[in-house]
Structure formats: C-alpha cells, structure tokens
Description:
The complex is a heterodimer of chains A (about 200) and B (about 280). Chain A is an alpha+beta fold. Chain A is built from six helices and nine strands. Chain A has one domain: 3-Layer(aba) Sandwich (Glutaredoxin), CATH 3.40.30. Chain A has helices at about 1-20, 65-70, 75-85, 105-115, 130-135, 175-185, and strands spanning about 35-40, 45, 55-60, 90-95, 120-125, 140, 140-145, 150-155, 200. In chain A, the strands form two sheets. Chain A has a seven-stranded mixed beta sheet, covered by helices on one side. Chain B has two domains: about 20-175, Immunoglobulin-like; about 185-275. In chain B, strand 7 and strand 8 form a beta hairpin.
Amino acid sequence: MKTILLLTLLLISVNIINASESLKAEIDKTAPNFTLKDSYGKTHNLSDFKGKYVVLEWINYGCPFVKKHYDSKNMQSLQKEYTAKGVIWLSICSSAEGKEGNYSNNEINKRSKDYGLVSTAYLIDESGIVGKMYGAKSTPHMFIVDPTGNLAYAGGIDDKTTPDQEDIKIAKNFIKVNLDAGLAGKPFPVKTSKPYGCSVKYK
Amino acid sequence: MIKIILLLILPFILFGEEKLTNEEKSNLVKVEVIPQNQYIKNNDSVLIAFKFVMQKHWHIYWINSGDSGLPTEVKLTLKAGISESELMYPVPEKIPFSGYTNFGFQNEVVLFKKIYIAKETDYKFIVLPIKISWLVCKEICIPQDTTISLKFVVTNEKVHNVNWSKNLDSLYNSLPQQNNSFTVNAQKNKDEVTVRFKNEKLHEIDFTNVEFLPFASSIYDYKEKPKVILDKGFYSIKLIMDKNRYEEPEKLRGILIGRKGQFGDINSNSLEINCDFEK
C-alpha cells in the first residue's frame, strides 16, 4: 500500500515538474498562455489574439534603456506602425511592488499618455509569473508570438546594445525586420538576439 | 496622522533613487586612469590601469554582464602603428537577482589594457583618447561614461610612473592566468557544452571545486553551479545553454575559477580558457 502511495506521489510530482517546464517559453514552440489585467483593469488573455502577430514588450519606465526607446519615440513609432497593420502589442511590466517601474494605474496611464504609448495594452505582472515564464530578464526584452501561437522571436529590440539614443539611427531593428517579413508571408530573418537593458525588477 | 506622514514619505522611499541629483550620480563611480610608464619606446608596450571606485552597494559589470546589464568598456582611438590588447578583467562577483545572475564588481575594481607601439614610428609623442563606459546599478541602473586623453612621450628611456603602485602590479599579476600546460577541450552537443581539462604537472591537485564562467552573455544558463567530475583523467564540467540563445558559439572562452595558486601561478585563482569546439 505504502509503495503504491509513494509511486502515485512520485508520478504526481513528475507531472508537476513537466507542467512547469512546459510553461517555459521556447522558440518555435507554443507560447505559454497568460491572463493579465491592463492599467485600466481590463483582462487580456494571450489566447484571445490567436491568428495575429503579438509583440510582448517588457517595460519599466524608470529604466534608461527603456527611456532610450521612448524618449526618442522609437518604441511608439513601432507600436503605431504595426498596430495599424493588425499586430497586437502588449507592453508588460513585471516590476514588483516597491521596485522601480511599479506605479499605480493612474501613474502608469499618466506616463503612458505623456510618452504617447500606443500599444494595445499596458499589462501588470506584479507577481512576475508571466515574466519568469517567458524568461524576461531585461527591459526592454522583446518577444513575438506568431499567428499560430508559436513563439517566433525572443531577444533585444535591436543590435545596438547601448543606452545611447543616437545608436537607434544605425541599429538593425529586429522587431521591424521580423514583422515586415512575417506580414509579407515570409519567415522571420532573426529568431533570437541578445537582450539588453536593466534587470527586470522582480520580487 | 501616521498614515498621512507615511503616504507622504512612501513615494520618496520607493522611488527616491530615481531622484538622484546630478552631483550624486557623478559620485557613484570614480574612475582613475593610470599608465605604468609616461614614456614609451618604439617596439614596446605600456600597461594602463583603469581603476573604478563605486559607492557602497552599487556595481558595474564584467565582460559578461550575465542576465542583464552591460559590460564595462574601454575604447581607444588608435593612430597608425599603435595597437591594443583586449581589456583585462579580474574574476567577477556573482550578483544574483530574482533567480537570475549578473557578474560584476562592487566597491573597487581595476581593469587593464596594454598598448603596443610598432618598431619604426616617427612619433615624438602619442596622444591617446580613451572613452570609458559603464552601467552602474543598485535597485536602478545609470549608464555613464567619461573621455580622457593620455599623452606618452616616445623616447628610448623607460620612466616609471610614480602613481603606479605596487598594489597595481599585484592586481595585474592576479588576473586570470594563461597557462599552456593545461590540456583543455570542449564539445558542443545540442543544448550542452562539456569542458574537459587536465594538467599533467598538477595531477595531484583536486579541481572538483572549480567553476567556469563564460565570456559570452545570454548563451549559457547560470542558475546553478555545474558540478565538476573526474572522468578518465580529465576534469569535466557540463554547461547548459539557454534554449533561446541568440547565437551558436564557435569557441569556448571564459575563465575557470578556483583557489589562489591552484592553476600554477601563486598570485592568481583563475585560468583563462580559449578553445575551439571539437568537431
């Protein structure tokens, strides 16, 4: 009896381990689903957007590398261009309570308005569960989910890993090259790149 | 009343560091550039030390910053006939954050670089513009840089710089050593890399305590310290690669870290590894 009980417990624990492993985002595999509330309190599921390209942008308004792309309007112009083409753009903040980038919804909405953020939604991931599931390490850290629901890109926004705004002009923007290719029915030219920036301010 | 006071104070506690004054920011890291010699001969080299002193609890980064951050860099503008070594970093500290790992330096660190002058140049003196850039982080990160110029007189004399201390010699000697008496090979297999090493001369030394840190960032998973096992006369370390890595490494470069003297040189606790993957 004891042996059966132990074996059952072992099987359950193996299944739990497998389940948590399968929830790790991996290139060319199904992007793990998540449900998060936006800064207006509306709930969003990744699975709601199946059939569309979805950009996941890890954000922290206090991080100088995020500021590089927002002060220069680089991020907003990408958001504007591709959401107009039917792409879903989710900005996700995994900053824990008390950490840099964790603001009240009112403060987020004020900052987003001041910056002219035009992403589909600004999602709050205060627990960091979604960030850890995707392996988001830095801000900005970018991911693209393709219309079949697979993770098609993970990495940096571009190839100039500096905080210098001037570098944006000469950088190869991986979100742009991939979405342009994808929307034209071609495979993504870059599947992974080196993410760079501040650490995500997890718990 | 207490609640009101707390509510008034809380934003400063939570986000106070964002409000550092320019003076406070400029005091976070003090950088000093010290050449070993002020004079340089044709067909010779000169060592330059870059000393960083950080405010308490703030850190800057190693050549591999780890899961976030940016490496500390030194860029020289070189004239014809002048060349440079790679930037030499000492062994970094592990700086963990929420299940991830950064590699960097707290309190104080000295990096080194050598410049070389060709055999026949007409220079009477060399002005060397140097741009130093780093990211300094605690709860928040601030990118910083500075540009300085060093002037070297080209002469046959070799005059020691009085500001070059014995401590700088000692720090230079404790950098990861390059010891050719080690046999090192590395194999790549899907998402794993196995590093194997041995040293016939140091065969009595146990290397199961050592750790390998790669120079490349965002390629390897640093969550757990890999075990070192002794297998058929070789010490073997299995490194796990990040499944979302941005490139396939063509070489294995990094450092083995152990105890002082363990790799042969009594001043150093680490060995630089630079090897191609076996086909």
